[in-house]
Amino acid sequence: MYDRRSLAEVDSTNAEAMRLAPDLGAPTWIFATRQLAGRGRRGRAWSDPAGNFSASLLLYPKEAPQQAALRSFVASLALHDALSALAPEAALGLKWPNDVLLNDGKLAGILLEGSSLAGRMAYLVIGIGVNLMNAPAPAAGVAVPPRSLRDGAGVSVTPERFLAHLAAAYASREAQFVRDGFAPIRADWLARAARLGEQVTARTMQAEIVGRFETVDEDGNLVLFTAGGRQAIPAADVFFERGA
Fold first, then answer.
1. CA pair distance 238, 6, nearest whole angstrom
2. What percent helix, strand, coil does the chain show, rounded to 5?
3. Are 162 and 130 in contact (CB under 8 A)?
4. HSE-up of 20 (CA within 13 Å, CB side)?
5. Which stretches within 56-197 are classed as H helix?
6. Measured on CA atoms in the order 161, 166, 172, 178, is the torsion positive or negative?
7. Beta carbons of 213 and 224 less than 8 angstroms apart
8. Would you state the pLDDT for residue 137?
9. H or E element in which residue 16 lies
10. Which residues lie closer than 8 Å to 22 by C-beta, 6 or more apart?
11. Mean predicted lDDT score pLDDT of the chain
């Protein structure tokens, strides 16, 4: 069972989870009606208009950080499961490494943060934001434009109701991951992957790599088939070809 803490307002659910991590000791959802200083990957601001979903799951895995990080795929699948249950007609897809798409626009994002000691995780925080009611204005340089569930699928869901669905979906996917390892999670993720087999551009901190999206490997790396051969990429922002 996962505990739950609900807040009217917080700076960041991830920040609150990390503040609480040394004292809680049990898996806990941190949910906020309003988040004032949400964060995305690489320190980007996460805009959180009213009616959208913001929560973080605090876990205490005892694995190595590389294994624990695969929970970004677990969380992606749980999001897809919950959204599919609430909006069965929605055109959803999963974008590497940690986004959920609706009609090729960004519906949800995931941010993993945590702390490790002696090669093992002390705690892991999985931050999740979903544009349930309103899509924020697109920022410069974003890979895909934001979408909301209400506008993109015609479905209105309260954050509280969404949390109930997501918490159940995540618990099921976490049990699968712990029991069976990454292989079935990887297979299920790839079955829902956006632009698999198509040409994409991966922008790392050092380079821009263009290639055919071939797979995600056993370590969670993006694998592209490029002009120079097969290349595994551990971290990047992925951009789709225009008109694809």
1. 33
2. 30, 35, 35
3. yes
4. 23
5. 65-68, 71-86, 149-153, 159-180, 182-191
6. negative
7. yes
8. 79
9. helix 13-24
10. none
11. 93
- State pLDDT tens for residues 5-56: 999 999 999 999 999 999 999 999 999 999 887 665 555 555 677 899 999 9
- Tokens for 37, please give them: 């200083």
Backbone angles phi, psi at 167, to 5 degrees: -60, -45
What contacts 90, CB < 8 A, 6 or more positions away?
83, 84, 102, 149, 152, 153, 155
The H or E element that residue 18 is part of is: helix 13-24
- Spatial contact of 76 and 100, defined as CB atoms under 8 Å apart: yes
Integer CA distances (angstroms), 120 to 51, 66, 114, 221, in order: 37, 9, 11, 21
CA distance 57 to 5: 10
* Conformational region of residue 239, where left means phi above 0, alpha means psi within -120 to 50, and beta covers everything else: beta
Tokens of 98: 């940690």
